[in-house]
Structure formats: structure tokens, C-alpha cells
Amino acid sequence: MSSSIVSLRDVTKEYPDSPQFLRVLSGISLDLAKGETAAIVGPSGCGKSTLLNIIGTLDRPTSGTILFKDRDLHDRSEADLANLRNADIGFVFQLHHLLPQCSVIENVLVPTLVTKNADHAVERAQRLLDRVGLSQRAHQLPGKLSGGERQRAAVVRALINKPSLLLADEPTGSLNQQGAEQLAGLLLELNREEEMTLVVVTHSEEVARMMGRVFELREGTLHERAPQHG
Ligand code: ADP
Ligand code: MG
Hints:
Oligomer: single chain
CATH architecture: 3-Layer(aba) Sandwich
CATH superfamily: P-loop containing nucleotide triphosphate hydrolases
Structural class: alpha/beta
Distance between the termini: 33 Å
Radius of gyration: 17 Å
Helix content: 25-40%
CATH class: Alpha Beta
Order of helices and strands: EEEHEEHEHHHEHEHEE
Strand content: 25-35%
Bound molecules: adenosine-5'-diphosphate, magnesium ion
CATH topology: Rossmann fold
Number of strands: 10
Strand order of the largest sheet: 6-7-8-3-9-10
């Protein structure tokens, strides 16, 4: 049995209708195994979010293949992909996207409303909120929280359905250096505890170096850095 979570084969992404024909990704291949951690770095506008969204099935490639747990997603309907995402892929964005009128725990439980295995969701939410140091904040509105606390709440929401893949697009982008490294450290601890594969797009070299693998996106192609030791 393969332990591959996601594989990209020769993925390209073009925006033919943009003012200038734009080929953002040109031939990306990538394999991420269960439990791996990876950072994607590269200059602003180089296509990191495009790549992450394709990995997460929020966007489709122009050509190439995506395998999620060895299943080809090519001819899946949007509804199928939405179900797959909700059940098995967690997303954290630079801005937390918490619903301002709902409490922290209500926000965290939103993804469980549409899954059938919502049993024990409240207990899991409480356990995870406790795990990230937010148990005292569960019934407060996001507006009462600090930036770091909101991102931790967004992480819990992303994990509530036990995804096998967590995708984070500049999750530390709104935090200071210390907050960024703390959040990245928490993501790594959760990666081990929850056994999910973790992909983080980041501007921070420090955050990137914390991940098991580092990929640089340059002019549409992906270059894996040699592993660093020590
Ligand atoms: P990054 O996350 O690395 O900053 P993005 O993936 O957001 O980069 O964008 C890569 C390039 O693709 C940018 O030049 C951006 O303007 C362009 N782009 C992104 N989405 C679209 C779209 N829907 N239509 C046209 N161009 C787009
Ligand atoms: Mg981006």
C-alpha cells in the first residue's frame, strides 16, 4: 500500500485571458507522503497560492495530473471535490476568515455541519482548542482575540474533520517573527499528533527551515532544496 497523500505529475497552469498570456506553472511534479512536512517559498506573484490551490483541489490545472491518495481527480465533479476537501483537506489562509458573528467554537464546528461523521465533534473541538491554548476563548467572538489566537482558531477549524492534508497559505503572514515561529511550531506538533501531511507557503526563511522539505518556486518550476542538517 502506498503512503502517498498527494502527487502532481507535470502540472501546468495558464491564464490565457490575462492581459498578457500567463503561464504560472510549467511542469510541476511533486510527491508528498503521509506525515511529511513541506514549505513552498518564492517571490510574490510567482504562483505559490496557485500551486497550493491546485494541490488542494480549489483550482484545476491547465494540464497534468493530480493524484490524491492515488486517486486521479481529473474527472471528478465540483461537488465530489468539495466533499473530498471538506472531509480530507484542511486550509489555513493568511487572513483567518473566521465568521465575526460566531464564537470561536462555533467557527471551529462549521466544517462538521456538512459531514456525516460529526459525532464527537464538540469534544474534539474542545480538545483541540485546549491543545492550542484557546479553551478559555471558546465562547468569545473572533474580534476579541489577538492575531495569533485567531490563527490558532483557524488551525483548529482546519483540523476539525481530521484531514490527512493541511495546506497553509502564508498562515504566519499577519504575525510578527516570534508569533510566526510559534504558529509554525504548533503546526509541526499537530502534524505529528494528528498524523496529517503539512504544506506551508511562507515568506519566512525561519518558518521554511522548520519544515522537513523546502521547495522553491521559480519561473513556474519547483526546485527542492537539499536537506539541511544540524
Ligand atoms: P503568489 O501566491 O506566489 O504570490 P499567485 O499564485 O497568487 O502568486 O499568482 C501567480 C500569478 O498568477 C500572478 O501573476 C497573478 O496575478 C496571476 N493570477 C492568479 N490568479 C489569476 C487569475 N484567476 N486570472 C489571471 N491571473 C491570475
Ligand atoms: Mg499567494
